[in-house]
């Protein structure tokens, strides 16, 4: 149970600053990052407060690997990474592998001591690695690697990873998984091991090139950590001729390749059918295997039929009545299904039972996420969006690779130059998050509205949030900021008005106002006139939560997202609505405002 924070009375730092620092500290920010975020001149106060108020004791001792996994996930999803962030990501992957290898070594040592206690003789002089000549110049030389050198990795696997390994022979493995259970880590090593000992090609397909590079980083770091081999090249070609390709889901990049295929996060790929056709084509020959793994998305996504078997059933009327295993059977070690696929479900509860307790604090995760989001991300539950006013296929068209935005650089002092942008702010209601977005306004023919930047703030004061908005305002030419002032939002509006009097615009939600806003956004989605980064998966999820209903009086229709603890994350949708609210009903060519040559 989290201890109540005792605040030191200070003329220099008020309670609000200390509370905000504590919140960021528990979110794994470094003291220097906290100082920068809060505008402090030094990180010294952070160290002092952490010691004085025992903040360190609030972080679980077993959460180091979880912290690294969270940071890797954060940096992986970040668009336009700086060189420093790329280096940090590589260092984190290196550290992640070191921790896992250390755990494997400890387990091996414990096993050896147990064998010694049982009277077994341990040969401490047994060679673990063949010595190589330092003069060897063979690129990506793996000739010295033996099966014995792989054993420490195998000994470190959790039960669910061993189940995946024992079913490596299956023609098609289809795995629905919780986030952060080490799936990418495991399959990267599995593919590397197979390439070393069989000489077979390995192909990694992900939603973006950046995501596929995570596979590459893991493989390079693993080869160095376990086998003392420095792998180079892209694709990586081993000394035995095996090729390791790392590709995005663009089908054109995959033409001509063949090998064992690994499809990552397939439930979030926009054109899944095309992706699946290409992936299976690369594994056409009998010897090639296919492995697909993902967290679930929507039941209306094309991948759901692939997972459920409905796509296979629909291909032949005779298959309609064929029964597939139950969800709980998939959790129980996996099942070989009538369509020839081996399906396996790994929830976070299964991961914990399988020995991954060192990685997770499930109680903290349940506090961090809504029940709806937790079930989707960690319990392998597909979102049932049958009543949503938005179509998931149309939304997937809006989720694009933001690297194509050549006029936008997030890391620049002026990310969008002097071009006009609109902003939207949705305040926190009870337990949900406050959300803030920046929308790029189109001025060129066929240009789309773009969600350039989004922020979510939970548990932080209005003053702190207003300060963040002030900083963002200095980077962009914001000509309009729509703020929901219904209830708690009015206090934020009053604070922001002090420095954005002209731009800040109050929006008092009513059925008519909400209907107008939602219909504007719906029109943009329906005609594919708005887009956002495909890394921002919860934007799509928030859109799917919007439903049409009647007012309490029953005399009018309105649009709602059930903003209880169960479904809190629709806030980003409302923030987008608040920004788009400034858009006229009819689209007319806009003048170029705020441009400088």
Automatic annotation (TrEMBL):
Origin superkingdom: Bacteria
Domain Terminase large subunit gp17-like C-terminal per the UniProt entry, residue ranges: 424-582
Transmembrane region(s): none
Key word Phosphoprotein present: no
Pfam families reported in the protein's UniProt record: Terminase_5, Terminase_6C, Terminase_6N
Keywords noted in UniProt: Viral release from host cell
InterPro entries according to UniProt: ATPase_terminase-su_N, P-loop_NTPase, Terminase_6C
Name of the protein this chain belongs to: Uncharacterized protein YjcR
Species whose genome carries this gene: Volucribacter psittacicida
Lineage of source species: Bacteria, Pseudomonadati, Pseudomonadota, Gammaproteobacteria, Pasteurellales
């Amino acid at each position: 149970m989290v201890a109540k924070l005792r605040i030191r009375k200070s003329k220099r730092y008020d309670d609000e600053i200390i509370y905000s620092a504590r919140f960021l500290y528990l979110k794994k920010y470094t003291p220097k990052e906290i100082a920068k975020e809060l505008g402090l001149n030094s990180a010294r106060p952070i160290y002092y407060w952490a010691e004085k108020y025992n903040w360190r004791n609030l972080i679980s001792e077993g959460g180091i690997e979880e912290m690294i996994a969270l940071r890797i996930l954060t940096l992986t999803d970040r668009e336009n990474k700086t060189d420093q962030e790329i280096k940090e990501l590589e260092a984190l992957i290196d550290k992640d592998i070191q921790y896992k290898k250390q755990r494997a070594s400890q387990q091996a040592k414990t096993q050896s001591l147990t064998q010694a206690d049982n009277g077994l003789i341990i040969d401490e002089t047994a060679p673990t690695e063949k010595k190589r000549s330092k003069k060897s110049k063979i690129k990506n030389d793996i000739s010295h690697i033996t099966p014995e050198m792989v054993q420490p990795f195998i000994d470190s696997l959790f039960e669910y990873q061993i189940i995946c390994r024992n079913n490596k022979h299956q023609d098609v493995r289809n795995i629905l998984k919780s986030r952060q259970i080490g799936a990418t880590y495991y399959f990267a090593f599995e593919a590397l091991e197979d390439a070393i000992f069989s000489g077979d090609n390995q192909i990694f397909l992900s939603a973006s090139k950046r995501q596929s590079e995570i596979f590459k980083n893991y493989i390079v770091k693993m080869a160095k950590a376990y086998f003392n081999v420095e792998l180079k090249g892209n694709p990586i070609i081993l000394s035995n001729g095996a090729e390791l390709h790392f590709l995005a889901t663009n089908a054109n990049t995959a033409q001509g390749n063949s090998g064992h295929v690994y499809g990552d996060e397939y439930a979030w790929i926009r054109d899944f059918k095309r992706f699946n056709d290409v992936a299976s084509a690369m594994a056409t020959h009998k010897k090639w295997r296919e492995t697909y793994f993902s967290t679930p998305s929507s039941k209306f996504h094309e991948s759901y039929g692939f997972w459920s078997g409905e796509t296979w059933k629909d291909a032949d009327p005779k298959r309609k009545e064929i029964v597939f295993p139950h969800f709980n059977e998939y959790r129980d070690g996996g099942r070989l299904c009538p369509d020839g696929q081996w399906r396996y479900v790994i929830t976070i509860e299964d991961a914990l039972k399988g020995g991954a307790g060192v990685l997770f604090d499930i109680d903290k995760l349940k506090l961090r996420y809504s029940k709806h989001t937790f079930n989707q991300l960690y319990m392998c539950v597909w979102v049932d969006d049958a009543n949503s006013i938005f179509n998931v296929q149309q939304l997937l068209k809006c989720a694009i690779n933001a690297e194509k935005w050549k006029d936008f650089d997030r890391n620049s002092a002026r990310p969008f130059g002097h071009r006009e942008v609109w902003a939207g702010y949705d305040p926190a209601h009870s337990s949900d998050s406050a959300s803030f977005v920046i929308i790029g306004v189109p001025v060129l023919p066929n240009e789309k509205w773009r969600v350039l930047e989004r922020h979510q703030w939970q548990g932080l004061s209005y003053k702190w949030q207003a300060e963040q908005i002030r900083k963002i305002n200095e980077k962009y030419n914001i000509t309009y900021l729509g703020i929901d002032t219904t209830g708690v939002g009015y206090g934020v509006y009053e604070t922001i008005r002090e420095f954005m009097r002209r731009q800040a615009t109050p929006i008092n939600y009513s059925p008519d106002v909400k209907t107008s806003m939602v219909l504007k956004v719906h029109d943009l989605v329906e005609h594919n006139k708005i887009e956002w980064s495909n890394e921002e998966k919860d934007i799509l999820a928030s859109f799917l939560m919007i439903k049409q209903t009647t007012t309490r009086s029953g005399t009018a229709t309105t649009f709602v997202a059930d903003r209880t603890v169960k479904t809190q994350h629709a806030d980003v949708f409302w923030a987008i609505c608040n920004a788009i609210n400034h858009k006229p009903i009819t689209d007319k060519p806009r003048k170029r405002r705020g441009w400088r040559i």
